Amino acid sequence: MGSQLSSWKDKVVDLLYWRDIKKTGVVFGASLFLLLSLTVFSIVSVVAYIALALLSVTISFRIYKGVIQAVQKSDEGHPFRAYLNKDVAVSEELVQKYSHVALGHLNNTVKELRRLFLVDDLVDSLKFAVLMWVFTYVGALFNGLTLLILALISLFSIPVIYEKHQPQIDHYVELVNKNVKDAVAKVQAKIPGLKRKPE
């Protein structure tokens, strides 16, 4: 099971770093097309159009192969037989594994939100409040679908950019982190009650 998960992670990394340009292009293009379609049509329409397109291709191919078999008087059988015989059932073990992982993430998220909303640490709660305040402006500028499109484009471009310019990016990130830590330390020193709890 561990090797399957590692193999799956390697495939995702290869996809995001554009190791196989054709495969990544298809995944990125199809995902972007789907999200852009959702900006114009409802999700029901998009799903229906995709299903109709897929059915058009498979029905046409099945009829074409049937005609070819009839003309050549061959007995190749159903053109999709190999796929029809494949087992596509999701194993109970796999569902339990991923539901266990999802439950762990959900519980951690609930604990963290409880800690932030009930002000267990004032500094962290203030940071969260500032983040939510920034999100009000982001929400006013973009809808959720636009953010998903930007996230998709970022997901397929940032890893490649980082890989090519890693030393420069690391240098500037380190500078920003140092300045932010210095600023937070100064604010914590000047305002009573903002000092972090020892962990």
TrEMBL record:
Its main location: endoplasmic reticulum. The chain crosses the membrane at residues 26-55, 141-162. Pfam families: Reticulon. It is found in: Endoplasmic reticulum membrane. GO terms for cellular component: endoplasmic reticulum membrane; neuron projection; postsynaptic density. Keywords: Endoplasmic reticulum, Membrane, Transmembrane, Transmembrane helix. Residues 12-199 form the Reticulon domain. It is a multi-pass membrane protein. GO terms for biological process: brain development; endoplasmic reticulum tubular network formation; neuron differentiation. InterPro entries: Reticulon, RTN1-4. This is Reticulon. The lineage of its organism: Eukaryota, Metazoa, Chordata, Craniata, Vertebrata.
